[in-house]
DNA sequence: CGCTTTTGACCAGCGC
DNA sequence: GCGCTGGTCAAAAGCG
């Protein structure tokens, strides 16, 4: 393992072949890339998987390929980065509601600062395929046992002791930003909303979703950037232990025909995008960076979509 | 009728 | 210990 914190936090101990969206079944990574992943404007070439570094240092074609692979199209752009949930990030002094990757230059620099997040730590332990026991479940468990007066204290104490003894483990998280007017981006999985919270320093609430599939504990958080309301920050937590329902139904076309980012794109690509060993850099995209902000202006239409998208357009200098 | 969303309440963790 | 904040629960309402 490298010293790269991304690697540790994002990759966990699973190695490079795992990705939160796809569970741990290696066969998942042999899934063919759907034809409709191909963007008519930026053709996605399955054989040209690239590493993150290649994306960063690579040609415009690589960038465009990446963009295409993300399903980036007219109205959405995406930046993806492993979401590191440092303890420090939970400090109250961290008031940033929006994670903000920092890139010194759009493509050339390879260092990315992992943004602080307002998330409080997740008290959960990861075990087989996301079957975790978090504090809430513990609580529920305790509540369910509430009727049993006898031994109630004992079980509570046991739970407490267990919680105390357990070292908090971070769920694998993966966050990305999309520029979209729609908060909850379709990703092929079915989600049930279980909470909504106002976010400090933000006018926009944060929504909490849970995968509706039984025994799948994947959660996702969706919030809007308080800095740029056009940006939706989606954070996935955990691994699906099942196939994507939409894919199984064979109607995945809608996944990619949508103009929004689909995290369901080929796992091979995700694997390739993960930061390799001994590599301090990470990228995944380019969109939400200083350069982008610098380019905001009358010449660009943030909401306009189409080829006006500055994040795409600027990769194609005329 | 079953599933999803809404929303107020509750809890845990953290800083002071 | 207290207050703040994020995260979750669960009953009620909404919806198809």
Can you give a write-up of this model?
- It is found in: Nucleus.
- Keywords: DNA-binding, Nucleus, Transcription, Transcription regulation.
- Its main location: nucleus.
- GO terms for molecular function: DNA-binding transcription factor activity; sequence-specific DNA binding.
- This is WRKY11.
- The N and C termini lie far apart (42 Å).
- A hairpin with a 6-residue loop joins strand 7 and strand 8.
- Strands 1-4-8-7-6-5 form a six-stranded antiparallel beta sheet. A two-stranded antiparallel sheet has the order 2-3.
- By secondary structure, it is an alpha+beta fold.
- Helices cover 23% and strands 14% of the residues.
- The longest helix has 14 residues.
- The protein binds a DNA duplex (16 and 16 nucleotides) through helix 4 and strand 5.
Nearest-integer average pLDDT: 47
Helices and strands, in N-to-C order?
HHHEEEHHEEEEEHHHHH
The general outline is globular
Give the biggest sheet.
6 strands, antiparallel
* Helix content, binned percent: 10-25%
Give the count of helical stretches: 10
Strand content: 5-15%
Say how many strands there are: 8
Uncertain spans: 1-76, 82-168, 249-318
Structural class by secondary-structure content: alpha+beta
How are the strands of the biggest sheet laid out side by side?
A: 1-4-8-7-6-5
